Structures are given as structure tokens and as C-alpha cells.
Amino acid sequence: MASDSVIDRVRKALAQTQRVPIETITPATTFEQLGMDSLDATNLLFALEDEFDVSIEDQAAKDFRSVQEVADAIEKLLSERPQDSANAGGS
Fold first, then answer.
1. pTM value?
2. Could you tell me the domains of the chain?
């Protein structure tokens, strides 16, 4: 299950791309409820990839139906990210 931080960032990106108040978006909110079309979904995908610095596969993105599903997928991508970047920089 995604952390509150990830969910909040997904909600913020969704509110910005859809131009709706963030208060109206919950983890259970579906894209259908927001009236999103394929262009909206593509814009959201780009916004999320920028926000989280991840790459979301197109096929996986097509399966997303709710804020929670997106947040869970991003959380998984973040957990799979190599952790050695914090140790980079040398001596």
C-alpha cells in the first residue's frame, strides 16, 4: 500500500492536470469519476513521471483506474529503484 506522501503527490498532480480542487480527490477516486479521457491520462502520466522521476510503462498505465492504483504502482517503482544514488559522490 502506498504511503500517504506518495498518495498526496499523486493527488496533487491529478488536481493540477485535471484542474480540480485537490480536496475532491481521494485514494478511491477513479479516473472515470473525474471524466478523464486518453489525452488526460497521457498528461497525468507525464506529470507523474516528472514528479517522481520514474518511468511508467504504457501498458501498466492503461490498467490504472484509481488514485490508489497509481500510487501503489509508483510506490512499487520507487522501492525497486537502486538505493546507491545516496552513496554516490565519492570521497
1. 0.84
2. 4-79 (1.10.1200.10)
